[in-house]
Amino acid sequence: MEDHRSEFPVEKMCNVLKVSRSGYYKWRTAAPSEQQKHKEMLTERIKFHFKDSDQRYGSPRIWNELKKEELRVSERTVGKIMREQGLRSCMSKKFRVTTTDSKHHEPIAPNVLEQDFSATKPNQKWVADITYIPCREGKLYLASVMDLYTKQIVGWKLSDSMTTDLVLDALKQAYRAKKPKKNLIHHSDRGAQYASSDYRKQLKTYRMRASMSRKGNCYDNACIEAFHSILKRELIYCTPTFKTKQEAYEKLYRYLELFYNRKRSNSTLGYVSPLRFEQQYYRRTA
């Protein structure tokens, strides 16, 4: 009745629902219970974190944000309140464009990584890949480099073509940002861009160990492919198709640099952001 007071007269609703007007007004003026107050407070915090994540967080991540605020609530209750409020995190669409051209005659590096995605410190293992970004103004491709220890995107580049320069620029950005020591393992698929002479020379200049996936085995580079799936679920398919390439760049920049690296809680890192996880490592080892 309370939700429909602006649509129907109270007297009519009381008659239809067979409740007394005095009982209804007594209910309205009654002080809310402590349980009601607690639920209202939780609802407001859940709405805040849902909006603060641009509608990307589901109940597990929001529950962990509430735990950081020392609020006592179960994940099941968070999910129930989200359903009551119609809060549903972004869902991905099925769409795939092939970005790996392995039909070339360039040398293939051995699979040094061998699906060992564990790392004990930053800048020990990096993984790289290319993904397609839909845009009305024309095709776009994103090259990303991820640190396997922090799950941080340490380098990225957006371009309208899948050239060697695309992946080289992402690699150079990552190197400038992190200045890794020698023998870092750099893993990628066996695409022509990563197998090119220019890319191999750059890895040698940076004293990195090249590693490549086995032919047709997507699991060999699962971490970076999983990141690109998250990117598409939380950004690409949650918003209308980018109208221009400039709009695509600006929104990708905000997502990668301001949200994913600095803010988004990562379940494999104990629900802290990649940047916070990296900072915690350097504080421990200082």
Radius of gyration (Å): 25 Å
The sequence of SSEs as H and E is HHHHHEEEHEHHEHHH
The largest pleated sheet is described as: 5 strands, mixed
Helical content class: 40-55%
Q: Report, as a whole number of angstroms, the end-to-end distance.
A: 61 Å
List segments where confidence is low: pLDDT < 50 over at least 5 consecutive residues.
none
Alpha-beta classification: alpha/beta
Q: Give me the side-by-side strand order of the main sheet.
A: 3-2-1-4-5
Counting DSSP H or I runs of 4 or more residues, the number of helices is 11
Number of strands: 5
Q: Tell me, briefly, the overall form.
A: elongated
Strand content: 5-15%
Mean of all residue-level pLDDT scores: 89
Organism: Paenibacillus alginolyticus
Protein name: IS3 family transposase
InterPro entries: HTH-like_dom, Integrase_cat-core, RNaseH-like_sf, RNaseH_sf, Transpos_IS3, Transposase_IS3/IS150/IS904
Pfam families: HTH_21, rve, rve_2
Structure write-up:
- The chain is 44% helix and 11% strand.
- The chain has 11 helices and 5 strands; from the N terminus they run αααααβββαβααβααα.
- Strands 3-2-1-4-5 form a 5-stranded mixed beta sheet, sandwiched between helices.
- Helix 4 packs across helix 5.
- It starts with 9 loop residues before the first helix and ends with a helix.
- The mean pLDDT is 89.
